[in-house]
Amino acid sequence: MLISRDFKFDAAHYLPSYKGKCERLHGHTYKLRVTLEGEVGAEGMICDFAEIKRVVSENVLDELDHNDLNKVIPVPSAENIAVWIWGRIDGKFGIAKLKEVSVWETENCSVAYGGK
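Now predict its structure.
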């Protein structure tokens, strides 16, 4: 079974190797979806939604929200942001397994990463 929780954060970035308007500093309201996979336990859930929020807040949002992403991730494309987030939260949900990290840079543009 899969369980997901969505988050939003605001951040600025630029793409240093990109030729176009995204090479200049600009901001986004990013959407993040964290999806876990597991079996329903004795409490009737895979993982408490509050625990997902705690892990993501402490390991991702506290660092990325209202920040210059280039100071955290050298080339902060949506793809690289998803990989970075995966590395920060993988293995932190008890017996539930991290299945996918999805990042929306805009309402219509997203990436999904499922680990290596």
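The two ends are 21 Å apart (CA to CA).
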